[in-house]
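Trying the structure run again after the queue cleared.
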Amino acid sequence: MGIRSFAAELLPSALQGFQRVTTAAPAAPKPQAASFAALLDKLGYLGKPELKQVREAFKFADEAHLGQFRASGEPYITHPIAVAGLVADWRLDAQAVMAALMHDAMEDCGITKPALIERFGAPTADLVDGLTKLDKLRFSTREEGQAESFRKMLLAMARDVRVILIKLADRLHNMRTVQAIAPERRLRMARETLEIYAPIAHRLGLNQTFRELQELSFACLHPWRHAALEKALQRARGHRRDIVERVEQEVLRAFAAAKIKVQVGGREKTTYSIYRKMREKHTSFAQMSDIFGFRIVVGSLNECYLALGVLHQLYKPVPGRFKDYIAIPKLNGYQSLHTTLVSPLGTAVEFQIRTVPMHAVAESGIAAHWLYKAKDKDADEAQHLGSMWLQSLLDIQDETRDSAEFLEHVKIDLVPDEVYVFTPRSKILSLPRGATPVDFAYAIHSDVGDRTVAARINNEPVALRTELHSGDVVEIVTAPGARPNPAWLNFVRTGRARSKIRHHLKTMELEESRALGEKLLTQALRAEGLQPPPTGEADAAGHALWQQLIRWSGNRTRGELLTDIAIGRKIASIVAKRLARLMTEQGARPDAVTLTLGRYGHDDSTPSHALVMVDGSEGASLQLATCCRPIPGDTIVGYLGRGEGLVVHTADCRVGKRLAERDPERWMAVEWAEEPLRTFETAVTVLVRNGKGVLAQVAGAVSASQADITHIDMGEDRASETTELKLLISLRDRLHLADTLRTLRRCPPVLRVWRVKP
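Done. Tokens:
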């Protein structure tokens, strides 16, 4: 029994994931000294000119690695040959095989990219370059160098998927021979493989590679646990052999009676997947019911559903355990019907039903594009979905300049579990499990995400942090003036949403900071009796002045200098004095009118001694201090903190006074605008007599005064007769605060109420 022959003739490689149910899963191949002759045997699908190019690449790599040896003592060239052999198993083209043979030539042998281009052409050289780590000496830490190398590789992969296929083959062979290297490096490599390379293999549908990378990493990281589970699996095979053979016989008879030509193959969970499931569900090995399963391979799509009917007639299905991944494929292109049935002895057995091309995609994913040459939409589905994810890497790269942050976004997107939700027009979107309406909005378009204000799920209004579930119909409500909220970063799940939100917030912060920095520098320069020189290359003299100032400050651009002034890294008065000296050297003279202007706000209709007006529209560059929580009507001052932007305190704030004594040159005058654009929060403490309905009475009093409670802290002492309620109240100004305090004092349970000051 086991696998029948008709699909094996069509596609031997596609069926290599099958195994006889009653036998053990094949162990990872034992590393052997790879020979070029064995590689050539695998390359029968290439033409003679291509084989000639591969031979030249082998000679080049052999000469480059001459005298080099692996940690196991073998000649180094055995590793590139083995990697090329794995690439050949996927039937990749000659350029990929050549790149696999030379993938370490640039990194380890000092071969330059121009030399490779000259000898083997630009496409092959680009593949090798994409696989080459960056020089670690450029980076301050190993982690920084590693993150930048990953970033380079993933971006090269987004341009050409063969890069990651070769890299995965390289990592797979390294993991097969990992026992030869030092223990510390071995553990680091295994952890890296489990966290990054195995998930990438899964994300691209390379399930066979994914499972082997997981197994090898698990055996390396937890050898005792791996050995214990292996022994338990061997015992389980013996105990369950009879039931497995009986199920297989009955299934084959049922399909023969229905005249459907199928193969029945066995599926056994890997030790790592068993280990992970035991940890997640806190179960013992004896409680694991789905260690064994069956794969049914049929000849056509229609026969998949006919086969499902045959199985459901044979055994009773378990309710809620049927999944149709053919109608709605997984994110990595995987397609199959999954159903769990109750076997004759009462145990649950899972069946997976698929066609031959679907099996090729299930085992080889995006590599099935090369492996399965016949034009078939099932094989192309993996290529299409894989390309979508690769394109998303380029989108994330556009908004992310930090390598570690880029790697963090990629890791987020490597989550295998997904949910399937619908747009109001019935279009299906796949999102990671735990995704929210904000993730959904950014999956549609970044402009939709940026302008999101509310969401509806199944026509019901919901909070933006609500977790989506499969089958939900999601509708996003947008507003033209809306902007991303920093709080969204606490609950969004996709790398795309996270990178778009961060990019937008950074852009806003830069724009606000530059505007504030320009305002501060202009005012400081007016105090010197001068107007700022013009910007732009059209005015040669003004452009030269700015370039001199930028070089003196150590900044790269004028915008960066203004940002540094706004966030307190540089003092506006000092920069203004330097600029005034440069202007004086070029013949500029202080002007009396400008000196007078220096004492007034430069863009307000009424004179004001304040440099900055606070109207409530402040962003990241101007903040209200949380120690004193100023509101309109308070006398206020501004402190230009180091890297914090302008922080506004009340004039009598003790924290502010201590800062003023320490850095007097960082203080400046600020004033409230005549008509603030929003309400402001301040802290109030209410001492109340404990009793029934006290909180409701206090909240009613605040509401009666047309104020809002944004936060309540009742403390932890609930046994006393009195309680202090600490409230954050949103108000218009000091007059509104006074009215609210009077209303609270008239409330019967209130003993005392006061505004909190540091």
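The longest strand covers residues 680-689. Worth checking whether this holds up in the mutant runs.
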